[in-house]
Design goal:
Strand order of the largest sheet: 5-4-8-11-12-7-6
Shape: globular
Order of helices and strands: EEHEEEEEHEHEEEEEE
CATH topology: Pnp Oxidase, Chain A
CATH superfamily: Electron Transport, Fmn-binding Protein, Chain A
Domain Flavin reductase like: 33-176
Number of helices: 3
Protein name: Flavin reductase family protein
CATH architecture: Roll
Organism: Kineococcus glutinatus
Distance between the termini: 17 Å
Structural class: mainly beta
Largest sheet: 7 strands, antiparallel
Radius of gyration: 16 Å
Number of domains: 1
Biased composition (Basic and acidic residues): 14-28
InterPro entries: Flavin_Rdtase-like_dom (IPR002563), NADH-dep_flavin_reductase (IPR050268), Split_barrel_FMN-bd (IPR012349)
């Protein structure tokens, strides 16, 4: 999702998003949210053999060691992290755009998104293998916030990986910070 057009599966499909309303008809709150730059993270959880994940950009980290995020209230990962009580949050870098797309259901993932990478199982959930930044979190609360579920958690473990080129989401596409 770079450049001026809407892309899917790695190639331009249209000059703009095919279902985009004219600017003056868009919801003001959504327009505000679109103008806020957000980190792209991957939330993963496991409960027994069941695994689930979702790309999440609505994330806040607070002190001391608190994390909050907004998830779709019907997402598979919400169901699994609620059942297990734990989840992992991986900070994605620019090279992991295909993984972000697969877990947000925007890109192809034959066999499912977990087939697109090698994973390390942790006490909090699966984490992409390699030098990635991730946190292991324990769920402390889940409540409805608008059309989303607000997940609150205590950060129990942090692995600071390489300081790579971060994946940032703004105005419906990935952006470079530099």
């Amino acid at each position: 999702m770079s450049g001026g057009g809407f892309e899917a599966a790695g190639g331009a499909v249209h000059g703009e998003h095919p279902f985009l309303r004219p600017e003056q008809q868009r919801e003001p709150v959504r327009r505000l949210r679109g103008r806020l730059s957000a980190p792209v993270t991957l939330w993963t959880a496991a409960d027994g053999a069941q695994r689930a994940g979702l790309t999440v950009s609505s994330v806040l980290v607070g002190e001391p060691g608190q994390l909050a995020g907004l998830l779709g209230d019907e997402s598979d990962v919400l169901e699994v992290l609620t059942a297990s009580g734990a989840f992992a949050v991986t900070v994605l870098d620019w090279s992991r755009r295909p993984l972000a797309d697969a877990f947000s259901f925007l890109g192809p993932a034959p066999g499912g998104p977990f087939t697109l990478a090698t994973w390390t199982d942790t006490a909090w959930g699966p984490v992409p293998a390699g030098d990635v930044t991730w946190a292991g979190c324990r769920v402390t609360g889940v409540r409805t916030l608008g059309w989303s579920a607000l997940v609150e958690a205590r950060i129990e473990h942090v692995e600071p990986g390489a300081d790579a080129d971060p994946l940032v989401w703004q105005r419906g596409r990935y952006r470079h910070l530099g």
